[in-house]
Sequence to fold (378 residues):
Amino acid sequence: MTSLFGLDPGALPPETRRLRQEVRDFLAAELASGGFTPVSDSWVIGTDPAFSRKLGARGWLGMAIPKRYGGADRSPLERFVVIEELLAAGAPVSAHWVADRQAAPGLLHHGTEEQRKRYLPGIAAGECHFAIGLSEPDSGSDLASVRTKATRTDGGWLIDGTKIWTSGAHLSHAIVALVRTGPAGESRHEGLSQMIVPLPTDGVEIRPIRSLNGAHHFNEVLFTNAFVPDDLVLGTIGDGWRQVTSELAYERSGPERMLSTALLLRLLAAREDADPRTIGRLTARLWSLRQASIAIAVQLSKGSAPEVAAAVVKDLGTLFEREVVDAARETGVEPDLTSPDLFTRILAESVVQAPTNTLRGGTNEILRGVIARALGVR
Fold:
């Protein structure tokens, strides 16, 4: 692991312990007062804008954003601690998730000063939510085949095309869309650009994609001559492939890639009918994945973009999450989304969400191709 991740992550710094306790105390108080209801996969299905604003008021959103843009100017590892605690508690964090995880770093790395001042303070306050427009009906994880097109016009661009599986677009104030602004070239990576599309806006239609249980998290987003001014182009025209792949390291390596079922594992471990060997095996796996995720967080904080290591974490982490669901089902408990019993309900939510774990953020099959190419075996 040392050669792949570049360092031995070790433990989190001692100064994060007080922060962790602060977050735990806050969550305990919120639970006691009915401030939120724990859910499985809370960064996808746990939507509560008011809760997001509470986190923003405590400086727990936009933690790595500089203070001049409304952030807390704290370390990525302090942010890591806050995220761990929120996910382990099943707290509703999906409203702000994409803005905090991807849009903010993208704006800091590639945005103009005007764009940063426009969006970053709202992200840090939990008041500005973003969606990311990557996948398309015929492209999936193959981002190089993106066909949504942006055509030059006076003062900006006109976007036409469709994005799909766009999490939270119906609740977002803007979407960062990967679009084609020029020919693909031999590599297919040329001619791609990123643009910030405010929501709602003329020419953008958001259609819900409902889960089997009727829940609405994903969307299809249709662009029809949607105008984007030049000042909302993110980064450099034609440099979209490099920009978006560097952002994918944030999307694929975070603790959410192994903690979507953390609440279920905690509840399972507390049961008398749980197999101690199974709990020990899963806990050991989780700890190893956590160490790898911390190592990548350190690299990201230093300006690196460890896409391959992030792909490894995402692949192994999402497989682990499914193993947790399988272990919980071995108790013989029948999943029930309406059950008053917390374990039974969380198990049901985890079963519903499990098929998406290895799909979102790039299918595991695609990620293994990335890893194989980096290792020189493909």
About this structure: The CA atoms of residues 280 and 340 lie 28 Å apart.
